[in-house]
Amino acid sequence: QVQLVESGGGLVQAGDSLRLSCAASGRTFSFYRMGWFRQAPGKEREFVASVTRTTLTTYYADSVKGRFTISRDDAMNTMSLHMNSLKSEDTAVYYCAATARRGGWYYAREDYDTWGQGTQVTVSS
Questions:
Q1: Are 78 and 71 in contact (CB under 8 A)?
Q2: What is the DSSP letter of 78?
Q3: Would you say 31 and 53 are in contact if contact means Cβ atoms under 8 Å apart?
Q4: 20: closest CA among 4, 33, 1?
Q5: How high is the pLDDT of residue 75?
Q6: Would you say 73 and 100 are in contact if contact means Cβ atoms under 8 Å apart?
Q7: What angle do CA 65, 69, 70 make, to 5 degrees?
Q8: pLDDT number for residue 53
Q9: Which end of the chain is more exposed for a tag (fewer CB within 10 A), N or C?
Q10: Alpha-carbon gap, residue 69 to 96, rounded angstroms
Q11: Integer CA distances (angstroms), 104 to 16, 18, 24, in order
């Protein structure tokens, strides 16, 4: 039994900052890659950022590069997304995702096999 739970979403104004957290359940933490995806109404779920285990290799979508920072703390079984300079375009449900597999693409939804329930981020302008 594995589970991911997101928290930290909310209603903010453009230019504000927000920190999302993802907690992984279980005694062990074996995810190789963890990441964040988001989905706005009427749009497909899109890649936001990802980070690997041990080497902490990160990738960011061009739309958030320079504004968002992803991190993970395996000792605490948590992952975070620190979002700065938020824009109305960032409004979406944000999902935490993970996989123990070393293969696959960091940006591909189908290569993540564990997902959280999502947390709503709304940015007003």
A1: no
A2: E
A3: yes
A4: 4
A5: 85
A6: no
A7: 120
A8: 93
A9: N
A10: 14
A11: 34, 29, 21
- What's the average model confidence in pLDDT over 95-118? 95
Distance between CA atoms of residues 59 and 2, nearest Å: 24
AA identity, residue 11: L
C-alpha–C-alpha distance, residues 95 and 118, integer Å: 4
Residue 27: pLDDT band with limits 50, 70, 90? low
> H or E stretch including 84?
none
CA distance 80 to 69: 8
| Residue 6 CB-half CA count within 13 A | 25
d(CA 75, CA 120): 27
CA 123, CA 102: separation in Å to the nearest integer?
34
Q: Please report the pLDDT score of residue 28 as a whole number.
A: 52
Tell me what pLDDT residue 2 has.
86
What percent of the chain stands above pLDDT 70? 98
Residue 70: which H helix or E strand, with range? strand 68-73
Contact 6, 21 (CB under 8 A): yes
